[in-house]
Amino acid sequence: MAVLQFRFRSEMLKKPTTVNIVLPDPGRTQGDLSSYLVLYALHGVGEDSYSILEKTSISHYIRDKKIV
Asked: What are phi and psi for residue 47, nearest 5 degrees?
């Protein structure tokens, strides 16, 4: 699993924000990534973009699924 982290300024939030994208290991991909579903996981107030990965088993659940 690879985690790509993007930091940018959000005009809507009026502050810098971070987005993490979890990609499968290259040997585990099943075809083109464009055929994968996208799962958006939003954290709660007081958390950050990495807390979903630290405090849940989401990366384990999507490991063998066609989900980014």
From this structure: -100, 175
The answer to whether the CB of 19 falls within 8 A of the CB of 68 is no
Q: What is the Cα–Cα distance from 45 to 1, expressed in whole angstroms? A: 26
The two three-digit tokens of residue 37, written as one number = 């579903």
pTM score: 0.70
Alpha carbons 62 and 67: distance in angstroms, whole number: 6
Burial-class residue 53 by CB neighbours within 10 Å (0-12, 13-18, 19+): middle
Of 35, 36, 28, 32, which is closest to residue 1 (Cα–Cα)?
28
Mean pLDDT per 10-residue run, the chain (68 residues)?
90 90 78 83 81 84 83
